[in-house]
Amino acid sequence: MFNIGAGELILIAVAALLVLGPQRLPEFARVVGKYLREFHRQADEVRSVVQREMYTMDQDLDREKASSPPAQPLLTPPGKGEGHLLHYKDVPVEPVPVSGTAQGLAPPSVTDVLPGVEPLPGAVSPSGAAPG
Q1: Residue 28 CB contacts under 8 Å (≥ 6 apart), including other chains
Q2: What is the pLDDT along the chain (132 residues), one digit of tens a residue?
Q3: Backbone angles phi, psi at 22, to 5 degrees
């Protein structure tokens, strides 16, 4: 319990016997035992009160969750929206301009998608060329 070995315990017992004497040592041991018993009883009582309060708080939280209305989902389930894809509700969607060529479309650059944002120095664009 207190990481005391047998030799240390014998040394403490001999010192207590020398200090208290053979007549007062049993009385002292009873008093120490009584106080330790009382301490353990109080600690168990505090532990049970804390556990009971935590259980009560947990039950209150569960009741609040059950009584509150469910949160509005951000995504609609399949079959409720357009087609079979999920989509966000009430989120404005703006088309993103894409630069293209006669042969095909090139992926948009950072400045096309996010105006006012400059690419990092030395960054490579999706087309493979370093931005100028």
Answers
A1: 16, 20
A2: 578 889 998 998 899 889 988 899 889 889 999 999 999 999 999 999 999 999 999 998 888 888 877 666 555 555 554 554 545 555 566 666 555 554 556 666 666 666 666 766 766 665 555 555
A3: -70, -20
Kindly report whether the global pTM for this prediction surpasses the value 0.85.
no
The token pair that represents 111 in the structure block: 């400045």
Among 129, 107, 106, 108, smallest CA distance to 117 is for 108
Calpha distance 10→81 (Å, rounded): 81
Question: Within a 10 A sphere around the Cβ of 57, how many other Cβ atoms?
Answer: 10
Structure tokens at 51: 């556990």
Task: Identify whether the C-beta of residue 80 lies closer than 8 Å to the C-beta of residue 92.
Answer: no
Place of tokens 């049993």: 26
Which amino acid does the sequence have at 7? Answer: G
Retrieve residue 42's tokens.
Answer: 């109080």
21 within 8 A of 28, measured Cβ to Cβ:
no
Whether 99 contacts 91, CB under 8 Å: no
